[in-house]
Every structure is written in C-alpha cells, then in structure tokens.
Write a structure and sequence with these properties.
- Helix content is 43%, strand content 10%.
- It contains nine helices and six strands.
- The structure holds magnesium ion.
Length: 250
C-alpha cells in the first residue's frame, strides 16, 4: 500500500456505522419485518396471514428505498418506509412492533472493541471523530447504541442519512458530516467504511481520503460495481491509527 503524506493535516476521521464501527453480520432482511408485522398485526386484531402480507409490503418498500438511495435519489426514514407499506406510525401496534424489531436487531448492533481505544487515540492526536451513516433509523436510536457501548462521548459529530436529503455516496452527505465537525476542507478529512461504492468512491469523490474495512459480506443485490482504490485498508479498526499516523508524518 502506498501512503502519501496528506496535502493538509488530518483534522477529522469520519466513520461509517454498519460493518465498520459494528462488525458485519448478515441479517435475514425478510425476518426483521416478520418480527415487526407479527406484533403490529396482533395489536391490530389481524390474522397471521395479514402479518405475512404486511411484512412483504414493508420489505418491498425498504428495498425500493435503498435502491433509490443507491441510484442517488435521496434518503429515507423508517416512518416513510412504513407509510409506503400502509403502516401509520401512530397506529397503536407500532410501538410494540418497533420494540420487537429493535430487539431483533440488538445482537447485531454491538460496537467493535477497537472503537473506544481508536476514538481516544484520534482525539489524543487532536483529530476529530465523526460518524456518517446511511440509515433509516433515528439519531436517538443510534445515540443510544453508542451510549450503551460507552463511546457516545468520544464522537464529536454525527450525521444520519435519515435526517438529511441525500445519503452516501452523494457529496452532500459528506459535506454535512464535515459541517457538523466544523470543517470545510475535505482534504483534511479521512473516511472509513466497508462499502466500495458508498464509502470509498463516495468519500474520494467528495475530496476525502478513504480507508476500506474489507471484511463485510455485502449482498450482491446491494453492491454497485465500481473501480475504486482506497487510500488505505484497515484489517482491524485500530489499523486506522497507524494509517493516519503515516499520513501525519509522511
Ligand atoms: Mg457499512
């Protein structure tokens, strides 16, 4: 790997969430919505067949939302996905269903053990720590996950695509992440992620350096073919410190 000294000092390292700060898990994407729909249907006095049909509608709505995002067409929030599938977030069944859905996800949300020492090491170097995640979930949910794992206070700024108009790889998403960190020069920023298209291509096109975490088994349907060359590869997250140090002193 060829490490070049940064054109300007590294002032921030911004991280993807799924498959980066939390290790990749392959999720049964249909089952997550069956879990939701069973609770929702039960609270609404519906029969199991209704729940199965609802789960299929939500999965189709979510697939369409992510396909739109990959095509550069914006962002999505969970409430919008559910609304497209005919669910109202103010339905009495929603709260119980959302709780069941989040319990389904919980085992897959735990922060990598390298994250706390990595974030602390970056901050010791005077480098800000950011998060930029493509997600349909809320800031509160993500913050609760980080707080549970003891790293929320080590994050200087976070942007969740559910809150903004464009997701990665759109340049606007990367600009939003820089803005919350008080930065305007992408050359001073490094982005770390597990997806070649959204994370490496996206951040490099935005003018940042990109570090790839190459261990995610991304489903083919979610992959966008792209010829990318990350500026660094982190086989474990703490490698990010060594890579950034190489740029600092190079
Ligand atoms: Mg990811």
């Amino acid at each position: 790997m060829r490490l070049r000294p940064a054109a300007v000092p590294v002032r921030a390292v911004i991280f993807d969430w799924g498959g980066t700060l939390t290790p990749w898990h392959t999720i049964d994407l249909a089952e997550q919505w069956r879990v939701y729909a069973r609770e929702y249907a039960a609270a609404s006095g519906q029969v199991p067949a209704d729940a199965e049909a609802l789960a299929e509608r939500i999965l189709a709505a979510e697939d369409a939302a992510w396909a739109r995002i990959r095509a550069g067409g914006g962002s999505a929030h969970l409430a919008e996905v559910l609304a497209v599938a005919g669910v109202a977030s103010d339905n009495p069944g929603h709260d119980a269903a959302l709780t069941a859905y989040q319990e389904f996800w919980e085992p897959h949300t735990f922060t990598d053990a390298d994250v706390a020492p990595l974030f602390a090491g970056l901050r010791d170097r005077g480098i800000k720590v950011g998060v930029l995640s493509n997600t349909i979930w809320s800031r509160d949910y993500h913050a609760a996950v980080f707080a549970r794992d003891g790293v929320l206070d080590l994050i200087d700024g976070a942007v969740y695509s559910s809150e903004i108009d464009h997701a990665k790889p759109h340049r606007a998403a990367f600009r939003s992440a820089m803005a919350v960190l008080g930065l305007s020069d992408p050359r001073a920023c490094v982005y770390v992620g597990d997806r070649p298209y959204e994370d490496v291509h996206g951040s490099q096109r935005a003018g940042m350096r990109a570090i790839l975490v190459p261990h995610s088994d991304i489903p083919p349907a979610q992959q966008v073919p792209v010829d990318v060359h990350p500026d660094g590869v982190a086989h474990r997250l703490l490698d990010v410190l060594d890579i950034v140090d190489g740029w600092r002193t190079g």
